[in-house]
Amino acid sequence: PKPNERILDVRKVTRRFGGLVANREMSLRVDAGEILAVIGPNGAGKSTLFNLVSGVDVPNEGDVIFRGHRINGRSPRELAAEGLSRTFQHVKLLPDMTVLENAAIGAHLRGHKGVFASALHLDGEDEARLLAEARRQLERVGLGHELDRTAGSLALGQQRILEIARALCADPCLLLLDEPAAGLRHKEKQALAELLRKLRAEGVAVLLVEHDMDFVMGLVDRVVVMEFGQRIAEGRPEEVQRDPAVLRAYLGG
Ligand code: ADP
Ligand code: MG
Prior knowledge:
By secondary structure, the chain is an alpha/beta fold. It has 2 domains: about 1-85 and about 170-253, Rossmann fold (3-Layer(aba) Sandwich); about 95-170, no CATH class. About 40% of the residues lie in helices and about 25% in strands. It has 10 helices and 10 strands. It has helices at about 45-55, 75-80, 100-105, 115-120, 125-140, 155-170, 185-200, 215, 235-240, 245-250; strands at about 5-15, 20-30, 35-40, 60-65, 70, 85, 175-180, 205-210, 220-225, 230-235. The strands form 2 sheets. It has a 6-stranded mixed β-sheet with strand order 6-7-8-3-9-10, sandwiched between helices. The longest helix is centred in the middle third of the chain and has 17 residues, at about 125-140. The protein starts with 5 loop residues before the first strand and ends with a helix. Magnesium ion binds near residues 46 and 47.
């Protein structure tokens, strides 16, 4: 991406579930080299928005534009191949497989076949290429010395970083993270924040949905705050933190 390139442009997306409007004319943008957080109380519509952007769900109205192209309705796999890659809160690592094998699953996303289908039909050359890419990304995130451990034996913070390595195997210019700090200890959060800063410096834009205010405040460039499916505030973390509407939303007043 060029400096200042508009990577993601969400334009007035609306998503209804029956009578409930989970996102109402939500808009946001992510520029190259930026970490943006979407925060808000439970039920605000963050996960809905995340799913609309990452191809898991389709808006009823509005557009999601990725690097100048409308991507409404494109599958997560197609998006990953084009440089928009997400971690999955509910697609767990395979605990009995090694760190290297788990990361290599992500490398499949660059190909044209389905992830698990292609896992069963790899020729030797494909497999060597995928493993090399996985190794490269594991070194990038600082897990290069843990290749042969089982994923399940890693601490939670390292598992979270392994999930990011897996997403990086698709070589994204935008990384989407769903509550990356959830359940982590203080030290693990610091390590995760350090990794995200490094990726930002390497030109990967990051959009994260997060509950943990402290984690967000020390890390991100900009915050978008949601409540009742709408954007109620946007700005630098320090600005947003003292916005009366945000305080009200969080304190439930
Ligand atoms: P958040 O992630 O901010 O907690 P969500 O996006 O998960 O919020 O949910 C926003 C609202 O939309 C909630 O009221 C939730 O119950 C509703 N919702 C989310 N997904 C669905 C769905 N698949 N079907 C019906 N209602 C949904
Ligand atoms: Mg959620």
